[in-house]
Amino acid sequence: MSNNLRILLVGTGNMGLHYAKVLMSLGGNLTIVGRSEESVERFNDLTGLKAISRGIENFLNESKNKVFDRCIVAVGREN
After folding, report:
1. pLDDT 10s digits, 46-57
2. What's 16's DSSP letter?
3. Segment 31-48, tens digit of pLDDT
């Protein structure tokens, strides 16, 4: 995977953790967004990465000029 590929990973739960580990090993440029502060803190502690809390809608509203090459949604159906 190209290091220049900008990937938005939505979800900091178990699925998000697994995706992040794989994407990090492939060298992706990751932005990770989670919903709850506690899930994001757990994700950050386990991965050493810095995920953003407050959910995808808030993130997109605050980052209108950000562009991503790929987006992976790693949340449960109920979310």
Report:
1. 999 999 999 999
2. H
3. 999 999 999 999 999 999
pTM: 0.90
In angstroms, the CA 33 to CA 49 distance is: 11
Non-local (6+) Cβ contacts of 65 within 8 A are none
Tokens coding 52: 């953003």
Let me know the angle formed at the C-alpha of 32 by 30 and 37, rounded to the nearest 5 degrees: 155
Provide DSSP, 22-62. Answer: HHHHHT-EEEEE-SSHHHHHHHHHHHS---B-SHHHHHHHH
* Distance of alpha carbon 57 from alpha carbon 18, whole angstroms: 23
**In angstroms, rounded to a whole number, what is the distance separating the alpha carbons of residues 47 and 30?**
12
